[in-house]
Amino acid sequence: MQPPLIRLMVLPTMLADFIGLLFPQVCLACQEPLARGEDHLCTACRAQLPYTDYHRLPPADNPLARRFWGKLPVQHAFSYLRFQKHGRVQHLLHQLKYRGQQEVGRVLGRWFGQELAQAGFGPEFDLILPVPLHARKLASRGYNQADSFAEGLAASLGCPWSAHGLRRLTQTESQTRKSRLQRWQNVAEVFEVADPATVAGRRILIVDDVLTTGATLEACAVVLLAAGAKAVSVATIATADR
User: Fold this and answer.
1) Contact partners, residue 101, CB within 8 Å, separation at least 6
2) Which end of the chain has fewer surrounding CB within 10 Å, N or C?
């Protein structure tokens, strides 16, 4: 017979297993039940995600960084995953953006932040700022999906983040079906720095969910540099082919 102390230690595990049978947690990428110890993504999906590994490349070989060449001085450009239509990444982003699964952003942010820290980028940033939503869209959705990614990155990089460093002045149309020029025109003069003193002389990492042409991130970077930021870098959960 087990001693009382061991029985008490086993009970929470048994209870968790019983609850898992009644209400199984599923992988947010493939919808299969998660095994004990798996965190929002099953081991198989995590292994098969299309990682970019751009942060491991020399700057001159980083295709994401090249998108900003000749436009503005972006110090670093990162994206964790490649966006593929109807793939795992699209499903994850849909869960994050439209299904209220903010933990997806936090988990991916923590994982990516750990990789960036291991690659030596931890000391490179003084402040992380997510691309903001307009107040009306934020009220409608209830949260900004970029905030959770910023929060996860900040936890792993040991860097502060703020949801209020940037403001979106107007509610823009969807960027999905616009050309590069139309995307830029859609976001030009849309953002402002809430308090220039908080960014002056600091190295800012701007984060968002997906990078396509980079027009939104460019618009944020322009106002941050104009407000006195020492340097700007960008990081997204995923990058889509243009």
Assistant:
1) 28, 40, 95
2) N
